[in-house]
């Protein structure tokens, strides 16, 4: 039965995230918001919505290790697996602005969570807990990120007014957009509840810790929207969309998902070790380092393969340590 709830929850989450993204995108276009803003905000939020739903439900149910493990594991999966697979499909050309602006924000968000979760290493006494003030601080970082995003959007070249008018006219009706958004949210909330219930049941029956389940099964499951979007974009030659999707998702996961979850309820790190947080931070640095190719700024297939190998090594170490 636990497997049934796990699969049902995953399906509801994926369908809900897709419906929410489509509905919100249609509403944004009708309200005259540019495609750039939609991509950096609505799509990023839509692919991070599964992490938000599961982390909130886990925190409310008192399962903090799964809430934090879900985000940490997702961010590790996003860089090592998604960027790795995309680079294997097609070498990724990184724009200079992404190198100097967006990727450093991914590193900053990882370092922020590392600092909060590594109190012992930093000489800070007391239990390792993401307290409400720290959750609010992460949300403030998220506000700064959103302000930067909209500032960048203002400098983007406007689209053809006739094309925008035609898109709005032939797009999804407003009533359908609202139904899609409400239905998507409902699917995310209920799906998140069922997914956590199934994952926890499987963890108990197999003798696995909630932290391990959150870092692996739950994290990979909630990263499926990002994986599907990025791989599809890469196969169409649009690696920029693939990279932007991962960057936006990783920033959303820490600043918004954990920020909001921590503001709602303090989150003890539990089985999420300093090692997991360091791997997440190292992944962000590797993302930046592999992107730095002087004039070419390209993540090659060899580097993509190395990223995937890094993820396999990490999972094996987790099974040996936590399993």
Describe the main β-sheet briefly: 2 strands, antiparallel
Task: Kindly report how far apart the N and C termini lie.
Answer: 22 Å
Unreliable residue stretches: 157-168
Mean pLDDT across every amino acid position: 80
Q: Over the alpha carbons, how many angstroms does the gyration radius reach? A: 19 Å
Tally the beta strands. Answer: 4
- Give the percentage of residues in beta strands: under 5%
H/E series, N to C? HHHEHEHHHHHHEHEH
Q: Which sequence of strands runs across the widest sheet? A: 1-4
Structural class by helix and strand composition: mainly alpha
| Overall outline | globular
> Helical residue percent?
over 70%
Determine the number of helices (DSSP H or I, runs of at least 4 residues).
Answer: 12
